[in-house]
UniProtKB/TrEMBL annotation:
Residues 190-318 form the MurNAc-LAA domain. The keyword Iron-sulfur does not apply. It comes from Streptomyces asoensis. Pfam families: Amidase_3 (PF01520). This is MurNAc-LAA domain-containing protein. It comes from the Bacteria. Keywords: Hydrolase, Membrane, Transmembrane, Transmembrane helix. InterPro entries: MurNAc-LAA_cat, N-acetylmuramoyl_amidase_3. The chain crosses the membrane at residues 28-46. Residues 60-73 have a biased composition (Low complexity). Residues 1-22, 53-96 are annotated as: Disordered. Gene3D superfamilies: Zn-dependent exopeptidases.
Amino acid sequence: MSYADSNPGSADPFGTPPPRRSRLRRPLTVALAALVPGALLGWLAYGTLGGSGGGGAEGAGPATGAAPSILGSPGDGKDGASGDGGAGAGTSTAAAPGAAPLAGKVVVVDPGHNITNFEHTAEINRQVDIGTNRKECDTTGTSTNSGYAEARFTLDVAHRLRTLLQAQGATVKLTQDGDRPFGPCVDERARIGNAAHADAVVSLHADGAGAGQRGFHVILPASVHAGAADTRAIVGPSKELGKLIAGDFARATGTSPSNYVGDGTGLVTREDLGGLNLSTVPKVFIECGNMRDTKDAALLTSGAWRQDAAEGISEGIVSFLRG
Ligand SMILES: [Zn+2]
């Protein structure tokens, strides 16, 4: 995948604190949410997972046939490619004083790739053991056509998600925080979640598929048992976690499940991802959209949309952890 390391057109100064969502946005989101649940239940109940479609979580983009999009696209054009949504003063996501529903829970957030991976090609191309196979340590990730890197997207959403989960009382650990030259490798990313005895892990990504291929999908671990990989105990809870995140992500962002993998369910099971194969705790990946589609890119480059994305993912995790 190509990689661009700078994006002067983006008003998204890396490392700034995530802006709070403005309360002004809430009525729109609520209105959209009211429209969604019926269809959402439909596609969740639709049930069957979309096989092992080739999403771009750790490698090349997929190219499976188009599937019907169950939900509409009420998020189209929302905010446009206007960069960060600004530091609104809303506090709607903060937990009530004293309320800590996730106290004692540990969540590991894995921002996919690394902003400076491209400067360390030898290191990230090193093969690591993923149990079922050997695979590159890490990849550079994709970018939008205008050069907004997936690694910047994932780290930004990770920061927003961390803030939301901490407000619920969770202990949150990031696998990387822009604080290392490359990686971690996919096997280490998995081990970080395992060592933390995480109650849930989410790996954040955005895809690099073809133009016109749109929407999000959540990647679930397949049942694998080979070498150091044994996902048999986490397949069930990870599926539950993934379904909850997919539902809340659709509602919070107003975007539809992928029209190119998952048969409209927004759920895909894969057995080729080291980050899932080596996990011993419930874990999913989410591909939040397709960076190579201009309409999806307009959402992914919007700070306000990324806040919605983080809120959707957070709500799914909270639902999962509260049982
Ligand atoms: Zn990725």
